[in-house]
Amino acid sequence: MAMVDHQSKTCVVLGGRSFAGRCLVVRLLKLGNWIVRVAGSAHSLQLDPSDYDYDLPLNRALSTGHASYFHVDVRSRRSVINAIEGSSVVFYMDEDDSCNLDFYSGYTVIVQGVKNVISACRERKVKRLIYQSTADVVLDGLHDIHNGNERLLYATKFKNVYSELKAQAEALVLHANDMDGLVTCALRPANVFGPGDNHLLPSLVDVAKSTWAKFIIGSDGSMSDYTYVENVAHALICAEAALCSRMVVVSGKVFFITNLEPMGSWEFSLRILEGLGYFRPMVKLPPVVVNLIVYLIKWMHSNTNSRNISKSVSVHNVVQLMSHTTTFDCSAAQQHLEYSPVVSLDEGITSTIESFSHLAKGSASTIYDVLNEQSKMEELLGGGEVAAILLWRDERKSFVCFCGVVSVFYWFFLSERTIVSSIALMLLVITIFLYGHASFSDANPQMSTQLSRYLRFEVSETGMKSCVKVIANIWNEVGRVTRSLAQGKDWNLFSKVVASLYLFKLLIVNSFPNSLGVALAFSFIMFFVYEQYEEEIDGVIGILMELVRQLMVFVMSHLPLISALHKSTTRSSMR
């Protein structure tokens, strides 16, 4: 093993395997004057040999002794002490899954975790603690922020639980400044993105894959600041250097970090999505309408005990981002931390698109997901050619079939001709077409060959057997039902048959053309609509069924005869 330079400083990167933590670790190692302790919640360090940008430098540093890994549970003070013992600097950022925790779990990890880190740093005489917070601590999701600076107060109503907990943790870090020789500061990066992002970019892709992809949500004039992840790592290192050289103006302070290039919210999103091959939406949709729909969807999921609300949350996050202007003044970081972006916004967007090629439209992974995911409607329709047409898998083919069905419906039912005359006229048109086609077949033999391929009115033996088998099964089922009715014992079956026949008479016999038109429209529209909003429609049906059930229980319990029978049954069972 190579000897470690004794002039190197030792630092700990808590959350070193997180999105921003990996960039910070590599950047510290490239400086060459740091011994880096990577600390994370995983029990062992899992490296990806194919990840040349992040894991390959770390793997080399581990072999030379310039890096080491510690398993740390921030909820345990002793676990934190073991990792930071003998270090001079602690960079602290949360694990990637912290934003998905419930309030109690999030509090123990984010807030109580910060308390344990501060206590351990004070006890072990760590000199500097730099905390990665978020610009979301000043956002309430209701008001715009134009060029906001560090004088902004915390939001009075946070847009989510994660932002509220981060605000509490940030305040604890700043309050701990100059205690037992520990100096602290916090950074607030805005809308961090880049390779490895598992929040902002996946949310945009989720929306692009959903039905919301056809709409422009929010205002074209909304602006936002975005921060490439490499610039966040650079800012953390700048903050550590500033705490050493300009401690008075930096310690106990908080700084906004951005790319210094505010961009239209939709411009940023569309550049990402178009780079991944998704279509540009054309229809504008007011954000208040989208918010109302999303809140309704979330309410339905919560009332039907559904666990799959990720897409609703993704849409909600994107709506919040697109609906408001949130730009920040980064001059304090430029002046006191000597921070300036090392990667421009254009370069960051380009590298991010390249790293998310596996999520691009038409990529192998997305095609595999589509092929292996079969909706409930597709299963109901058999998953064949009919399902592909009715669910609009191929829009051109489905549109042609729809126009053909509408034409046939008009020919037979809306043209004010009788069925016999319509059939006769259609046969006349077909006859004229075939005879006319024969006149041109000599000039173009290929056309004749193609037509003859479609005019093979042959039925295979297998097809005929299948058809006869279906007819036989239907006949046998009708016979079984008839025998059951003749016995006069199955009242449930009797009521079903009577109701079915009455509905057939009411809907089919009395208004056959209208019923057929509704059925055709239902086939080409409702199957597709249900597939797009399957969970939401199931949620509404579930709520309605529960309301009906509760109403039935209420009515049955208040009927005098039913109540008397229930009481007598209860008394007899007690005896």
From TrEMBL:
<protein>
    <recommendedName>
        <fullName>Reticulon-like protein</fullName>
    </recommendedName>
</protein>
<keyword id="KW-0521">NADP</keyword>
<dbReference type="InterPro" id="IPR003388">
    <property type="entry name" value="Reticulon"/>
</dbReference>
<keyword id="KW-0256">Endoplasmic reticulum</keyword>
<dbReference type="GO" id="GO:0006694">
    <property type="term" value="P:steroid biosynthetic process"/>
</dbReference>
<feature type="transmembrane region" description="Helical">
    <location>
        <begin position="502"/>
        <end position="527"/>
    </location>
</feature>
<dbReference type="GO" id="GO:0016616">
    <property type="term" value="F:oxidoreductase activity, acting on the CH-OH group of donors, NAD or NADP as acceptor"/>
</dbReference>
<feature type="transmembrane region" description="Helical">
    <location>
        <begin position="547"/>
        <end position="565"/>
    </location>
</feature>
<dbReference type="InterPro" id="IPR036291">
    <property type="entry name" value="NAD(P)-bd_dom_sf"/>
</dbReference>
<dbReference type="Pfam" id="PF02453">
    <property type="entry name" value="Reticulon"/>
</dbReference>
<feature type="transmembrane region" description="Helical">
    <location>
        <begin position="398"/>
        <end position="413"/>
    </location>
</feature>
<keyword id="KW-0812">Transmembrane</keyword>
<keyword id="KW-0560">Oxidoreductase</keyword>
<dbReference type="GO" id="GO:0005789">
    <property type="term" value="C:endoplasmic reticulum membrane"/>
</dbReference>
<keyword id="KW-0472">Membrane</keyword>
<dbReference type="InterPro" id="IPR002225">
    <property type="entry name" value="3Beta_OHSteriod_DH/Estase"/>
</dbReference>
<dbReference type="Pfam" id="PF01073">
    <property type="entry name" value="3Beta_HSD"/>
</dbReference>
<feature type="domain" description="Reticulon">
    <location>
        <begin position="386"/>
        <end position="575"/>
    </location>
</feature>
<dbReference type="InterPro" id="IPR050425">
    <property type="entry name" value="NAD(P)_dehydrat-like"/>
</dbReference>
<feature type="transmembrane region" description="Helical">
    <location>
        <begin position="419"/>
        <end position="438"/>
    </location>
</feature>
<keyword id="KW-1133">Transmembrane helix</keyword>
